C-alpha cells in the first residue's frame, strides 16, 4: 500500500477516489436529482438558498447517518473479508430508503459501480458481492415479469423490481442471500479494494451526492454555477465534522428522517398530474 512521507495514504488512492466519485464515471447518477425535482414541483424549493437548505438537511438527516454509516461499516467488513455483514448492511440501508425511486437510484448506482470497477480490481469479496447483486437484480426482473404490476392506469411505468421490493413497492420475502447493491455499500467495498481510506471514500461520496443535487438545481431552480460552488465550499466544514461524529457508529444504528422529501419523491414517482413531465428519474 502506497503511503506518503507522513504516513498518509499516497497519491494512487487519492486519484482512485477522484475517479470513482466523478460524474464522468458511468453509474448513471447524472439522471437523478435525489428528490430535488419533486420538492421543486411542489413549490417547496424556489431559490438557491432553499436548495442549500434542502441539501444540508439531506446530508445531516439522511445521507450521513444512513449512507455514511453504511459506507464506513461496509469498508470495515470488506477489510475483514466479511461478506455476510456487507449483505446485512446492504439490506438495512435499502429498507431505510422509503421512496421506491430512491431505492432504485441507489441500487443502480451500486450495481454500476461494482460492474464498472470489476476490471480495475482483483478481489474475491468484490467479485462475490457483485455476483449477489446481479443475482438479486435478475430475481427482481423475473418477479416483475411474473406479476401483474405493469397493469396500471398511471402514465408513468412502475419502478423496476429489485429483488427485495416488487414493482408495486411490496416487500418480497426475506432472503439472507439478497443484495440490493446500495450505492454507499458498493462504495465502501470498492474503496477498500482500491485502497482508498474509508473517510476519504465517504467525503468523496458526499461531494458527489452534493454535486448531483446542485447540478439538478442549476437546471430546475435559478441557481448559478457560482452559487453552486459557494454552496459546495460552505458544506466542507459540515461534512468534515459529520464524518468525525459518525466514524465509529455501528451499522445497526443507521437512521434516516426526511419525511417531506420522502413524500415529494413518492409523488414524483407516483404519476400525479403535476409530476407527469419530469427531467430526472428521481
Rg for CA atoms: 18 Å
Total domain units: 1
What's the order of the H and E elements?
HHHHHHHHHH
Approximately how much beta-strand content do the residues carry? under 5%
Total beta-strand segments:
0
What top-tier CATH class fits best? Mainly Alpha
Q: What is the tally of helical segments?
A: 10
Can you walk me through this structure?
The protein is globular, with a radius of gyration of 18 Å. The protein has helices at 11-21, 36-41, 48-79, 83-96, 100-117, 124-146, 183-193, 198-220, 225-246, 259-269. The protein starts with 10 loop residues before the first helix and ends in a 13-residue tail after the last helix. The protein has a single domain, classed as Urease accessory protein UreF (Orthogonal Bundle). It has 282 residues and is mainly α. α1 (11-21) packs parallel to α8 (198-220), α3 (48-79) packs antiparallel against α4 and α3 runs parallel beside α9. The model is unreliable at 1-7, 147-161 and 166-170 (pLDDT under 50). The protein has ten helices and no strands. The longest helix is centred in the N-terminal third of the chain and has 32 residues, at 48-79.
List key phrases describing it.
mainly alpha; disordered N terminus; 61% helix; globular; Urease accessory protein UreF
Amino acid at each position: 500500500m502506497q503511503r506518503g512521507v507522513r504516513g498518509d495514504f499516497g497519491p494512487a488512492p487519492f486519484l482512485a477516489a477522484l475517479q470513482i466519485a466523478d460524474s464522468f464515471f458511468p453509474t448513471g447518477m447524472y439522471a437523478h436529482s435525489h428528490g430535488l425535482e419533486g420538492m421543486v414541483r411542489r413549490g417547496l424549493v424556489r431559490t438557491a438558498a432553499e436548495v442549500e437548505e434542502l441539501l444540508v438537511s439531506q446530508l445531516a438527516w439522511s445521507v450521513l447517518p444512513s449512507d455514511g454509516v453504511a459506507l464506513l461499516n461496509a469498508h470495515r467488513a470488506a477489510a475483514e473479508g466479511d461478506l455476510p455483514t456487507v449483505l446485512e448492511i446492504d439490506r438495512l440501508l435499502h429498507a431505510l430508503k422509503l421512496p421506491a425511486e430512491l431505492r432504485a437510484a441507489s441500487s443502480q448506482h451500486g450495481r454500476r459501480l461494482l460492474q464498472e470497477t470489476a476490471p480495475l480490481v482483483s478481489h474475491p469479496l468484490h467479485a462475490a458481492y457483485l455476483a449477489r447483486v446481479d443475482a438479486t437484480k435478475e430475481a427482481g426482473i423475473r418477479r416483475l415479469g411474473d406479476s401483474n404490476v405493469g397493469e396500471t392506469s398511471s402514465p408513468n411505468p412502475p419502478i423496476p423490481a429489485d429483488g427485495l421490493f416488487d414493482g408495486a413497492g411490496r416487500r418480497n420475502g426475506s432472503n439472507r442471500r439478497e443484495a440490493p447493491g446500495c450505492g454507499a455499500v458498493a462504495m465502501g467495498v470498492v474503496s477498500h479494494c482500491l485502497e482508498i481510506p474509508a473517510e476519504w471514500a465517504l467525503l468523496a461520496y458526499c461531494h458527489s451526492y452534493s454535486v448531483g443535487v446542485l447540478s439538478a438545481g442549476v437546471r430546475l431552480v435559478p441557481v448559478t454555477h457560482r452559487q453552486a460552488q459557494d454552496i459546495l465550499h460552505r458544506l466542507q466544514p459540515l461534512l468534515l465534522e459529520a464524518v468525525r461524529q459518525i466514524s465509529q457508529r455501528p451499522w445497526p444504528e443507521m437512521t434516516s428522517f426526511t419525511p417531506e422529501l420522502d413524500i415529494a419523491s413518492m409523488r414524483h414517482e407516483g404519476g400525479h398530474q403535476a409530476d407527469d413531465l419530469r427531467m430526472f428519474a428521481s
